[in-house]
Every structure is written in structure tokens, then in C-alpha cells.
Design goal:
Distance between the termini: 24 Å
InterPro entries: Cyt_B5-like_heme/steroid-bd, Cyt_B5-like_heme/steroid_sf
Protein name: Cytochrome b5 heme-binding domain-containing protein
Number of strands: 6
Organism: Lactiplantibacillus pentosus MP-10
CATH class: Alpha Beta
Oligomer: single chain
Strand order of the largest sheet: 1-6-3-2
Number of helices: 2
Helix content: 10-25%
Number of domains: 1
Pfam families: Cyt-b5
Length: 80
């Protein structure tokens, strides 16, 4: 399977609600956070799945980008 490309409209569909997977984008890469307990229901510390979160993870996250290493990459993010 080739990597998928997401813009913000497409990414927003993967919000972890109503049975949808939960995806987030950081620095142009889309990660699957569906199975991560901290992202249950598509929410994590006020952040919502289906969003581009580079600024949030770089400026507000206590763990930073190191947690991304444990996630599955599902595609690339391209701004609208």
C-alpha cells in the first residue's frame, strides 16, 4: 500500500469519533494514534485528532516528538 496524502479537509475526517481512526499530523507526517490510550475518543489534553499539531507538540507538549517514534506513519500531510 502506498502512503496516503492528506490535506486538512481529509485529515479532519480521521478524528477518532464514530468509529473513525484517529490521525494527527506533525511536520508533514501523518501518524495513527487510534490505539493510544491517551488519545481515547480522539482527544488528548485538549487537542483533537484529525488536526495538524506541529506547533502544539513543539511548544506545549511535555514529551515532545519522541513519542512519535512509537506511532505508525500512515501518510504525508500537505497544507491546503
Amino acid at each position: 500500500m502506498s502512503a496516503m496524502t492528506f490535506n486538512q479537509t481529509e485529515l479532519s475526517k480521521y478524528n477518532g469519533q464514530d468509529g473513525q481512526p484517529a490521525y494527527v499530523a506533525v511536520d508533514g507526517v501523518v501518524y495513527d494514534v487510534t490505539g493510544v490510550a491517551a488519545w481515547a475518543g480522539g482527544k488528548h489534553h485538549g487537542n483533537l485528532a484529525g488536526q495538524e499539531l506541529t506547533t502544539v507538540i513543539d511548544t506545549k507538549s511535555p514529551h515532545g516528538r519522541k513519542v512519535l517514534n512509537n506511532l505508525t506513519v500512515v501518510g504525508q500531510y500537505v497544507a491546503d
